[in-house]
Amino acid sequence: MPPLITLDWLDLALALVLIGITLALGAWQRLGLGQALAIATARGIVQLLAAGAILDLVFALHQPWAVLAVVGVMLTIAAITARNRISPQKQLLPTVWLALGASLLLTLGYALWVVIQPPDWYSPQYLIPLAGMVLGNAMNAATLAGERLLTTIRRNPLDIATHLSLGAQPQEAIASYRREAIRASLIPLINRMTVLGLVTLPGLFTGQILSGIAPLDAAAYQLLIFFMIAAAEALTAILVTVGITRHLFTPQAQLISLEQI
């Protein structure tokens, strides 16, 4: 296959014309999103270029502490973002952080040590991109599961109180709500996997093809990514909903005030 065609600053400037078209269409339809889109574009440019510069340094160092520091920052940002979307309550942050960290450690460890087996376990070429894709999707799963669980509980306090008054434990009283929340968080993944290769060509797959990798090899890595994401999303959703449940009840197994949720 021919080598990858690199993009220079002029090429990126020309690519910005597409954002200009988007802004023009939004103004034409009076969507009121022009400022938000412009800010999001500027942030995306700065953040991605900064990430590229930092990763250049990390790749050059090729040291485990540098790689783990990058992954740790990614994990913390993902946990804070998911917590903010679920609830402003600060006590949920450790729960979300641990859920994301556990799912990342399990799936990433298995992929690196059992499947890929790179020469160095901390190889930034593999560890950082895989961690980023797993964390991004696990963060979304945590957000969907947490939001759905809290929304359902807010709507059904009397039903939960009835179960508790009949002797049910907190986890039993909201078991059906937890299952529904976990199920809702996994539906987007199932939908993506259903049309994988038919309607959508995922980013890793297309990126590897653009870089000159054989399509079958790119497909193999993309399948590995989806299998990792599936396990990470399921584990994260389970751990987040279990952790949230522990914050919703008093030591006397009573549902806390809804204003505190």
Note down, in words, how this protein is organized.
The chain is mostly helical and 261 residues long. It folds into two domains: 1-61, no CATH class; 63-260, Multidrug efflux transporter AcrB transmembrane fold, CATH 1.20.1640. Helices cover 77% and strands 0% of the residues. The radius of gyration is 22 Å and the shape is globular. The model has no long low-confidence stretch (mean pLDDT 87).
Distance between the termini: 55 Å
SS-derived structural category: mainly alpha
Q: How many domains? A: 2
Give me the CATH architecture of the largest domain, please.
Answer: Up-down Bundle
Characterize the largest beta sheet: strand count, sense, and whether it forms a barrel.
none
Low-confidence segments: none
The portion of residues forming beta strands comes to under 5%
Radius of gyration from the CA trace?
A: 22 Å
Fill in the CATH topology of the largest domain.
Multidrug efflux transporter AcrB transmembrane fold
Number of helices: 10
Nearest-integer average pLDDT: 87
Helix and strand element order: HHHHHHHHHH
**Overall spatial form:** globular
Q: Give the tally of β-strands.
A: 0
Helix content: over 70%
The first-level CATH class of the largest domain is given as: Mainly Alpha
Describe the protein's topology.
Blueprint: H1 9-28, H2 34-61, H3 64-86, H4 93-116, H5 124-155, H6 157-165, H7 170-173, H8 175-194, H9 203-210, H10 215-248
Helix pairs in contact: 1-2, 3-4, 3-5, 4-5, 4-10, 5-8, 5-10, 8-10, 9-10
Properties at a glance:
261 residues, mainly alpha, Multidrug efflux transporter AcrB transmembrane fold, globular
